[in-house]
TrEMBL record:
<protein>
    <submittedName>
        <fullName>DUF3231 family protein</fullName>
    </submittedName>
</protein>
<dbReference type="Pfam" id="PF11553">
    <property type="entry name" value="DUF3231"/>
</dbReference>
<dbReference type="InterPro" id="IPR021617">
    <property type="entry name" value="DUF3231"/>
</dbReference>
<dbReference type="InterPro" id="IPR012347">
    <property type="entry name" value="Ferritin-like"/>
</dbReference>
Length: 334
């Protein structure tokens, strides 16, 4: 069957819809950041990132419209005020692009592996190529600038070893074993993401126009900080270094470059995606204290996400993705 004869599946339209909304949001942020970045090498990366995203959004739009679905509103130039004062340092801008590229890569992998149509698979494969190239560029530039935060490392043991006791699972009772490399990796990644969420939350709370939203953001920052303190203690207990905070990369500006809608959506995006990363941390942990800690963190993420949802709906900022027909309602109308 010709690819043009294959209609989009529910999964395919779902990932395209999500990619469009998230992509237009990130592109708005990148456009603003480009206006404040002074470092030439960092500016070059952002110029290319914006071009790549805009080309991808054009193709996503074509896929959606060609199948008769309405194009999401997403985010536009109306959601940014590019001539506002500097809110972040150049280094933070680069670190933001690095972490958001990781989010993008994971999204492209999911989109590719859930797509059937050849044109969609080719498209998401090209998105992955672009994402990998951007990942390498941001990592290389962070290393060059001396700002890339490497995960903890330790000296190897001489031989492979097997778990020889159920004490390996102990965390709250008895002597805790040191963290495994898998557990350290998950803690480190989750810390970097929580630090990013906290930093953006602080910046957003300075510039948000609505008092209700500023109060929500203040609570969200406190939640991120609690998670940072909890996970940092796990590393410190094993005399391992923790990632540096980035609050000092925020200026004192209260001049908002973003709409409150964009600020809120971005905050929700970070907390909702954090649940999956915390879930990976939970799945990769075998120490009982870590398992319980991740469960508490995920529960708190859900609580913040519920408050976020209520505010988004109240302000009519949350677009509804395509949904299946309500057959009962259709039958009632006959």
């Amino acid at each position: 069957m010709n690819k043009t004869e294959l209609k989009l599946t529910s999964t395919e339209i779902g990932v395209l819809w999500g990619q469009y909304v998230n992509g237009t949001m990130v592109n708005c942020v990148n456009k603003y950041l480009l206006t404040i970045i002074e470092d030439t090498s960092i500016r070059e990366v952002f110029v290319d990132a914006i071009k790549i995203t805009e080309n991808q959004m054009k193709q996503v739009s074509t896929f959606i419209l060609n199948d008769g679905f309405p194009l999401p509103i997403g985010f536009t130039d109306a959601d940014i005020n590019p001539n506002k004062k500097r809110l972040f340092s150049d280094v933070f801008c680069l670190d933001y692009l690095y972490l958001m590229t990781i989010h993008g890569l994971n999204g492209h992998v999911f989109s590719l592996t859930t797509s059937v149509r050849k044109d969609l698979r080719d498209f998401f494969d090209s998105c992955l190529t672009d994402g990998k190239n951007m990942y390498h560029r941001t990592v290389d530039l962070l290393l060059e600038k001396g700002h890339f935060q490497r995960d903890p490392y330790f000296f190897p043991r001489a031989n492979p070893e097997f778990i020889d006791s159920k004490k390996y699972l102990d965390g709250y009772w008895g002597d805790k074993r040191p963290l495994s490399a898998i557990e350290i990796g998950n803690i480190s990644l989750n810390l970097k993401k929580s630090i990013m969420a906290k930093t953006l939350g602080i910046a957003f709370s300075q510039i948000a126009g609505s008092k209700e939203i500023r109060e929500f953001l203040t609570d969200a920052v406190e939640t991120s900080n609690d998670q940072i303190q909890l996970l940092s203690k796990k590393l410190k207990d094993d005399n391992l270094p923790v990632p540096m905070s980035s609050e000092t990369e925020i200026t004192e500006s209260t001049d908002s470059p973003f709409s409150d809608k964009l600020i809120m959506y971005h905050t929700g995006f970070l907390f909702i995606t954090a649940q999956s990363y915390h879930g990976l941390g939970l799945a990769g942990s075998m120490r009982s204290d870590l398992i319980l800690d991740y469960e508490r963190i995920i529960l708190k993420d859900l609580t913040v996400s519920k408050k976020w949802f209520d505010l988004m709906v109240k302000n009519k900022w949350l677009e509804q993705p395509p949904i299946a027909p309500n057959r009962k309602e259709i039958a009632k109308d006959q």
